[in-house]
Every structure is written in C-alpha cells, then in structure tokens.
Amino acid sequence: MSEHIARWHVEHANYYKLLDLLESLIETFIRSERPDYDLMSDIVYYMTQYPDRFHHPREDVAFRRLLARDPGIAPVIDELANQHRGISASSEALSADLRAAAEGAMMARATLQSDVRNYLALLRYHMDVEEREIFPRLAVLLDDEDWFLVDSAIHFAADPIFDDVVQERFKTLHHRIAREAGCRCKDAPEPACHLD
Ligand SMILES: [Fe+2]
Ligand SMILES: [Fe+2]
Q1: Which of 23, 85, 118, 178 has the highest CB neighbour number within 10 Å of its CB?
Q2: Nearest ligand to the C-alpha of residue 84?
Q3: Cα–ligand 2 centroid distance for 33 (angstroms)
Q4: Domain that holds residue 52
Q5: Tens-place pLDDT, residues 63-112
Q6: What's the CA-to-centroid distance between 107 and ligand 2, angstroms?
Q7: Residue 184, exposed/middle/buried by CB under 10 A (0-12, 13-18, 19+)?
C-alpha cells in the first residue's frame, strides 16, 4: 500500500474519533445541559484548518489521476469532489456558528443541532465511500509519478492535533481525545504525543 493511502487511513481514523466526540457533545446539548461550545468549536475549526486545506485537496489530485486510468469511476469521483466543496463550506459555516455560540450569541438550538448532525452524516458517508470505493483502486492503479504529482500539487503539512507538535489552540482538544480515545503517552506530554 502506498504510504499516502496508509496516512489517509490514519487521518480518517483520527477524524472518526473527532466526529464521535462531536456527536457525544451534541447529545449533551440535546439533553439541555450546558454544552461545551468551546470544544465543539475547536473540533470544527480544526476541520477547516487541516482536512479542508490539505487532506481533501490532496485527495482531489489523486482522484483526478485515478480518473485518467479508470474513466468508469467518474460518477463516484464527481460525487466526492462535490462533497469536498460542500464539506469545506459546511465546516466554515458551522465553525462560525459554534464560535458565536461559544461567545454567548443566541443561536437557534434546533438549527445548530441539525447542522451538526448533517455535518457528521456527510463526513462519515464521505470517508466510507473513499475507503470502500476509491482507496483500493488508488492502491492498484496509481504509480510513483502520480504520488509525486500529488505531493507537488499540495505540499504535505503537519497536522496541528495529531502530529508531533500540537498547536496551542488545540491542546485542550488533543488532551480530551488522548484521554477518551487512547494515547500511548498517557498524559500527553509535549511536544510528542502519539495518539493510537
Ligand atoms: Fe475526502
Ligand atoms: Fe478522505
């Protein structure tokens, strides 16, 4: 398996953990307790800063290379490319709404709930399709030159939560994920905390 696909598997696993945490936070919200808007906001803000800027755009380049080798896959590639645009727009809008709620703005609870639920469903569906329909084809059909072009088009960037150096804004979220999802270094000493 290409190291790129291996990394994308790991990144998807990280995103599933974040989405599970976001879902548990929105359940607290539904039970009318004080929701942790700051943590919810940090999760979605992270999605705007790494997956939407690096993970999905790098996939787009690889998916276009796949299209040249496997034209029959076009409908799935088109759907995923549209979802990348939709996810990015949803992340930006939801991040702004949650930040406003965290800062005390009056938000329509039902709207925020359904926006989060729709966002969770879209991202999970999207990653499931990539894992099931596309990644196995990439592993077979793309060669070193294709992957070189992926790296050249969108340069690799360090993940601000899950790589070695955790950005200041994401430290609370990192520690929460480490506690709930498991982290080999237990108490997340900086700078290196390796989430499983
Ligand atoms: Fe994607
Ligand atoms: Fe992906």
Answers
A1: 178
A2: 1
A3: 33
A4: 3-157
A5: 999 999 999 999 999 999 999 999 999 999 999 988 888 887 877 778 88
A6: 30
A7: exposed
Per the omega criterion (within 30 degrees of 0), is the bond before 51 cis?
no
Token code pair at residue 159: 């993940």
CB atoms within 10 A of CB 153: 14
Structure tokens at 26: 């929105």
114, two tokens: 């359904």
Count Cβ neighbours within 10 Å for each residue of 82-115 and write b for 16 or more, e otherwise: ebbeebbebbeebbebbbebbeeeebeeeebbeb
Q: Do 153 and 163 belong to one domain?
A: no
Taking only the tens place, the pLDDT of each residue in 107-135 is: 777 888 889 999 999 999 999 999 999 99
How many domains does the chain fold into?
A: 2
For residue 131, the CA-to-ligand 1 centroid distance in Å is 10
Tell if the pTM clears 0.85, that is, is over it.
Answer: yes
Q: How many CA atoms lie within 13 A of 10 on its CB side?
A: 13
Distance 127 CA to ligand 2 centre (A): 5
Q: How far is CA 77 from CA 26, 74, 140, in A?
A: 31, 5, 16
Are 61 and 84 a contacting pair, CB within 8 Å?
A: no
3-state secondary structure 10-51: HHHHHHHHHHHHHHHHHHHHHCCCCCCHHHHHHHHHHHHHCH
Indicate if 152 and 162 belong to the same structural domain.
Answer: no
